[in-house]
Amino acid sequence: MEKYVFTDSVGYLTTTISRILQQKLQARFKNTGLNTTPEQWRLLVLISNEGEMNQSRLAELQHKDRAAIKRLIDHLEVKKLVIRKSGQDSRSYIITLTQKGKEVVQVFNKASKETVKEALSCFTETEAKKLNLLLNKLLNNIS
């Protein structure tokens, strides 16, 4: 019987890489003096890129439940980075960035690009593009 080496598994590798990148990103974010987490930044950048949207759509795009998205939005609203506007239905809200939120996205986008550039520095440009392609293919397969 072939020995199973969990440290060679895709799950172990992607989880470990994700955790380490998260830690590096958090350190860079902390150095900006702004009090926002990578998880909050991902939500901000999604709204920045896609435009205002409701909480259900944000949850779908982030592969998170609506309660988790609501908590993130609550924190971002307290920090005055997003606002909730009434949607077509009195029970739904449209989330949009404030001016301060747009500024935070720009600062953190720069920090994120630096973190990714550093992480991918062991690859050629072609290898980095191939890695991204393969990871997206995996994500699409399991979503």
From TrEMBL:
Alphabetized Pfam families for the sequence: MarR
Q: Which Gene3D superfamilies match?
A: Winged helix-like DNA-binding domain superfamily/Winged helix DNA-binding domain
GO terms of biological process kind: response to stress
Species for this entry:
Polaribacter marinus
Q: Which residues form the HTH marR-type domain?
A: 7-140
Please give the name of this protein: MarR family transcriptional regulator
* Alphabetized GO MF terms: DNA-binding transcription factor activity
